[in-house]
């Protein structure tokens, strides 16, 4: 489900909860909303409000951590690709085919996107990315080093290519995690309860209604950011592929 859709649904849910509170207020007898009753309602909702604030803070921190880790992963992957290319260049012209395969791998990654859903999709003309990196490793293993220096460079190239392959599989596994939907659902229920009590206590006038709608929009915006940052390679708030763009400009150079 898209982040904008999630944010929009949360906004509708909170707006409906506020409307329900306003409707119930109009139908309740006056003594149900006297000063003592409102004090009890405020105390009860303060508990739910505190829990909601803690849960929202935890989700934002978790999403931000996921986004930061993805950003580091992108830079690390680009650095490893460059290192692998330079090690193969030092080995000699025997690695030209492997270097070309590596460049094609990065071009494919940039065209398909940095997502677990697209990175392993084979097509009529292209293999999955894991097969591409395995082809690079197969070429490296087929090399016949002539001296100790080339043996050392071959071993180093295989080690770095293994790191690149490991980064790929980590992306595939971590891409299945996503949002803790059960946690998010409970949070939205708490928030809906809070906004219902706001409507229950609020006088019906344009100023109050505008403030409540702005608050609902603000909370929905926070949920949108959580959903978007929890999927850091897609959406409006996504990790830049600038490190890979910079890397591909350097690949294949002598």
TrEMBL record:
Lineage per the UniProt record: Bacteria, Pseudomonadati, Pseudomonadota, Alphaproteobacteria, Hyphomicrobiales
InterPro entries: DUF4239
Alphabetical UniProt keywords: Membrane, Transmembrane, Transmembrane helix
Protein name: DUF4239 domain-containing protein
Record field: transmembrane: 43-61, 181-202, 208-226
A Pfam family: Bestrophin-like
């Amino acid at each position: 489900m898209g982040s904008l859709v999630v944010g929009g649904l949360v906004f509708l849910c909170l707006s409906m909860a506020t409307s329900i509170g306003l409707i119930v207020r109009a139908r309740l007898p006056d003594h149900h909303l006297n000063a003592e009753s409102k004090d009890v309602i405020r105390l009860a909702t303060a508990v739910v409000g505190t829990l909601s604030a803690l849960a929202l803070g935890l989700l934002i921190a978790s999403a931000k951590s996921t986004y930061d880790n993805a950003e580091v992963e992108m830079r690390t992957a680009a650095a490893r690709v460059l290192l692998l290319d330079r090690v193969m260049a030092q080995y000699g012209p025997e690695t030209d085919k492997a270097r070309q395969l590596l460049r094609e791998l990065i071009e494919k990654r940039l065209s398909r996107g940095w997502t677990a859903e697209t990175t392993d999709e084979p097509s009529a003309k292209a293999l999955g990315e894991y097969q591409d990196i395995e082809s690079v490793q197969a070429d490296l293993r087929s090399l016949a080093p002539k001296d100790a220096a080339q043996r050392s460079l071959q071993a180093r190239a295989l080690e770095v290519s293994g790191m690149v392959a490991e980064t790929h599989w980590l992306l595939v596994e971590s891409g299945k995690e996503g949002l803790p939907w059960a946690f998010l659902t409970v949070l939205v229920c708490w928030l809906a309860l809070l906004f219902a009590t706001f409507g229950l206590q609020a006088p019906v006038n344009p100023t109050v209604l505008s403030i409540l709608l702005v608050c609902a929009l603000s909370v929905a915006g926070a949920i949108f950011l959580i959903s978007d940052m929890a999927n850091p390679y897609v959406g409006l708030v996504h990790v830049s592929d600038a490190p890979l763009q910079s890397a591909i400009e350097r690949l294949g150079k002598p």
